[in-house]
Amino acid sequence: MRSMRLLNDGWVFQEGFNKRLRGEPISGQSVTLPHSAVELPLNYFDETVYQREFTYQRMIEWQPEFKGREVFLLFDGAMADAAVYLNGELVASHRDGYTPFEARLTDGLRKGDNLLTVKIDGSENPDIPPFGGQIDYLTYAGIYRDAWLRVTDAVWIENVKIETPDALAAMKSAVVHCEIRNAGLISGSASITARILDAEGAEIATANMPLEGESGSVELTSLSRISLWHLDSPTMYKAVVELDHFAGSDRVSCQFGFRTAEFAADGFRLNGKRLKIVGLNRHQSYPYVGYAMGRRAQERDAEILKRGLNCNLVRTSHYPQSPWFLDHCDRIGLLVFEEIPGWQHIGGSDWKRESVANVERMIRRDWNHPSIVLWGVRINESTDSHDFYVETNALARRLDPTRQTAGVRNITESGFLEDVYTMNDFVNGSEEPAWVNRYRIPLRKQQEVTGLNHPVPYLVTEFNGHMHPTKISDPEQRQAEHVTRYLEVLNAAFGTPEVSGCVGWCLFDYNTHKDFGSGDRICHHGVLDMFREPKFAAYVYASQCDPSQGVVLKPVTWWARGERNIGSVLPLIVLTNCDEIELQYGDGMTRRAVPDRDTYPNLPHAPVVLDHRHFPLDDLGLWGMKWDDMTLTGFIGGKPAKRIQMVANPVPNRLEVFPDQPHLIASEKDAVKVSIHALDQAGSLLPFLTDPVFVKVRGPARLIGPESLALRGGVAAFWLESTGGTGAVGVEVTSSRFQLTRIELEAVRRQLPERN
Ligand code: GAL
C-alpha cells in the first residue's frame, strides 16, 4: 500500500541558483510551501524582480519504509521552469508552471540524510508557454503549490480515469480505467478491484478483473439508486481502486460524479436540461504572494463564485488551476471550463510541443472532475494555427472522448476545429452610456462571429474587462456604467437561445505587466477587487438568484447629491431580486417601482431603475435643495423582505473587522482573509475615506502584506497566514478616526482531505 504525505515544510530558500547540491542544505530562509519566491507590493512594482533563478533545498532522511519501494516527490505546481536534484543528480525537470510533475527518488536515496534541491527559474522563457510575447497577467515564481512524498510498492497505480457512459439511464454504469506502472515486474497473476462508495462511505458496487498488460478497465454495471451530479445537489461518489498481486498491492481513491454535459447549437444542457451559463473568468492570483495560496483560499474563491455571485461556471483563465480549487468546484456544484496556458502568442516548435504536452498533462490530471465540462485546447486569443490546433483537439478527444473541446478566440471567422465555438466578445465597448444610446450592441450575433452558415455550439468566454476598467473606489457614475454593461450582456445572453451563456472578464482585479492595466500593475477588471471585496457590479450576479437563497437589495449609489456629474443619483439602478421596491426620500416623498423588464426582459431578476419616470422633476437632483436620508424597502409578494437606509450626512461611526473563516488551520499553509469596512452611522461604507489603518497580529499567524493599509472604496483587507502553531490569534486594527477594533480567531489542527 502507498503512503502519501505533504512535504511542504522544512525547505530552505535562497535567491539565485546555489550549485552546492550535496551535503548540508544551504543556509537561507526557512520556508513552508506553497511559497512565492518574491513577495511583491500591491501595485507599482517592477515585475522583472521575480524573473530569475531561485533555490529550494530540503533534507530527506532515509526511512525504513523506503526499502525496496518506489519513492517519488510530487509537485502540484512550480513556476516556471523547475529542475530537481537528489544528492547532486538531476532527477526531474519540468517546463510548465501550471501542471504537476514528479521526481523519482528511488535510486538516489541513501541511508541517512539526502539533499533535495529544486532550482526554479521564474524567467519568462520564450520557449515555455505562455511566454514569448506580452501577457496580461503575472506568473510570479516559486514552488507555489503543495509538494508530496509518495511511497509505493514497485508496481503501482499511476492514474485512474472513470467514465460514466450512460449517466442518464435508470441503470447506470461506471468504467474505471487503470494505468499501472511497472506492470512488467509482476510475476504471476494480478487483479484490479474497483469499489464504488457513496458520500456516506457505504459500498454500492464492486467488481474485479485480472490485469493483463499495463492497463485495464473494470466495469461496474446495473448501478441503481445513483444520484446525478447537479448544480444544486452535486453528489459525488468515490471509486476505491486496488491492485493486488503476489508481491504487493496498491490502492488509490478518486472522487467522481454521474452527469452529462453538452453544448449544442441551441444551448447548453446539464443532465439533459437546459442551463444558461453565467460565469466569470478567474485568475489564480492574490495580492503580495501572487499564486502562493493554499487549499482553503482556493476553496474560498470557488465559494465566492458559487454562493456569493450565483455563477454556474468558472473559466480557469488562462491555465490549469489548483487541484484544491477544482475539488471544491466538484463539491459545491460549479462548472469549470479549463484551458491550457497561453495568451495570444504562439511560439516555435519547442513551444508548441510543450503546449501539446500541456493538453495531455491537464486532461490526465483532471479527467475525473464532474465540474469540468470543457477542455480549452487553444492558446487564448491566438490567431489560427491549423496544424497545431488539429493536434491539440485530436489529443484531447483521444484522451477524453467524454468532454467537448473549445478554443477561445477574439477573431471572427476563425477556423473552427473544436466542438464549441468560444468567443471573447468585446463588442459592448461603445463609449456612449446606455441611457444615451439604448441600442448599443451587447453581444454580436453568433453567425457574424463564426462566419458559418449554420448555428454551432457557442459560448461567450469574455466580455467587459478592458472595455471599461473600474476600480472599487471609482466614482459612482463610472460604476453605474460598469453595472449597466454587465446587465446588458447578461440580458442578451439570456435572450439568445443559441448562446450557451456568457463568462465575464473577470472575477477579481489582478496584477499585470506594465503593458496592461492602469499603470499601477493592476488590471482593474474584476467585479471584485484583488482582495475579493465587491464592486457594485458584483451585485449584478449576486441578484440573479431566487430570493429563497438570499434577498438582494443593492442601490448603485453612495447616496450623495453631488457625486455624479451635474448632481443627482438618477438614474438609480437597484440590483435586486425583489419584485417591487419603495424608495422613501426624507420623511415624505415615496416612490414605488418594479423591475425594469422593458430594458432587461430576459434577466431572471431585472434591476429596478429609478429615473425621470418616477421623479419627473428630478427632485433628487436639484442643486441647492436640502439633501435628505433615504430608506429603500424591497418587497416580495407584497411583503417587505429587506430594508436599507442611507444617510444624507454620513460620518465615520465604526470599523467593522471580520474574518472570512472562524479559524486558521495550523497544520497547513492556511490563510484567512480579514476585511475592514469603514462604516457610517447607518452601516454604509464611507467610500472616500482614505485614511490609513494599522494592523497588529499576535499569536501563531503572519500578516501577509504591510501593517499599514489604505482604505479604498471604504474597505481594506488582508490575509492572515498560519505559522504552524495552534492557539489564539489576536488582530488589532487602529485608525485615527475610529476606536480600536479587536478580533480573535483560533489556530487549530485539522486533517487534510485525502489525496493520492
Ligand atoms: C482579453 C484577454 C484577457 C484580458 C482581457 C481584458 O483579451 O483574454 O486575458 O486581457 O482581454 O479585458
Secondary-structure blueprint:
Elements: E1 3-6, E2 11-15, E3 29-31, E4 53-61, E5 70-75, E6 81-86, E7 89-94, E8 101-104, E9 113-121, E10 147-152, E11 156-163, E12 172-181, E13 190-197, E14 203-210, E15 215-223, E16 237-245, E17 248-256, E18 261-264, E19 267-270, E20 273-274, E21 277-281, H1 295-308, E22 313-316, H2 323-332, E23 335-339, H3 349-366, E24 372-376, H4 386-399, E25 404-409, E26 420-424, H5 446-450, E27 458-462, H6 476-494, E28 501-504, E29 510-511, E30 522-523, H7 538-542, E31 553-555, E32 572-576, E33 580-585, E34 590-593, E35 608-610, E36 630-636, E37 639-646, E38 652-659, E39 663-665, E40 671-680, E41 692-698, E42 701-704, E43 708-710, E44 715-722, E45 727-735, E46 738-748
Parallel strand pairs: 21-22, 21-28, 22-23, 23-24, 24-25, 25-26, 26-27, 39-46
Antiparallel strand pairs: 1-10, 2-3, 2-4, 4-9, 5-8, 5-10, 6-7, 6-9, 11-12, 12-15, 13-14, 13-16, 16-17, 18-19, 19-20, 29-30, 31-32, 32-35, 33-34, 33-36, 36-37, 38-40, 40-44, 41-43, 41-45, 42-44, 45-46
Helix pairs in contact: 1-2, 3-4
The protein binds beta-D-galactopyranose.
